[in-house]
Amino acid sequence: MPTATATPEGRQARILTAALRNWAALDTTHAPTAARIQIRQPPTWEYAGTINITSDQTNRLLGLIRDDVTTHTPHPTSPEQAATAIQALLTERRAAGHTTIHARDLIEAATRIGRPRAWIADHLNHLADTGQIAETWRPSVFRIA
């Protein structure tokens, strides 16, 4: 069987798998299996194993996922509030001595900005059109004016 080249995603999947297996093994209640988590690993997404979890573990895992999604989901803000948040990010970058900003920097700050990616991309175009940032020869990289 050929072995797939290790990818960063594959390593992360293996680490998550090991953590879930250890976490599931800590249950000493001998409760019946309520859910099965199938593990697949990149880059080919082949089946790698199954982890059985109890009802209590299922509820705890869903709670953790819900909390994580809530924490990392943009909270709606007005366009003015979002523009202010982007200006603050540009000011922070300028103060730190950076002369450029990547679109991904703003996408990663989407929870702070509170607007979806499409809005952020449109706002970057607006900032470029008004001369507050300037496009560079590299895609998605802007010079801070």
How does this structure look, described?
- The relative contact order is 0.10.
- The mean pLDDT is 82.
- Strand 1 and strand 2 form a beta hairpin.
- The strands form two sheets. Strands 3-5-4 form a three-stranded antiparallel beta sheet. It has a two-stranded antiparallel sheet with strand order 1-2.
- The termini are far apart.
- It is built from six helices and five strands.
- It has two domains: 65 residues, no CATH class; 66 residues, Arc Repressor Mutant, subunit A.
- The protein has 145 residues and is of the alpha+beta class.
Protein structure class? alpha+beta
Point out poorly predicted stretches.
none
Give the helices and strands as they follow along the chain.
Answer: HEEHHEHHHEE
Number of strands: 5
Terminal Cα span: 55 Å
User: Judging by the overall fold, what is the CATH architecture of the largest domain?
Assistant: Orthogonal Bundle
Number of helices: 6
User: Looking at CATH, which topology of the largest domain would you report?
Assistant: Arc Repressor Mutant, subunit A
Oligomer: single chain
Major sheet description: 3 strands, antiparallel
Number of domains: 2
Sheet-strand content, in percent, reads: 15-25%
Query: Strand order across the biggest sheet?
Result: 3-5-4
Q: What value does the Rg take, in angstroms?
A: 22 Å
Portion of residues in helices?
40-55%
Overall CATH class of the largest domain:
Mainly Alpha
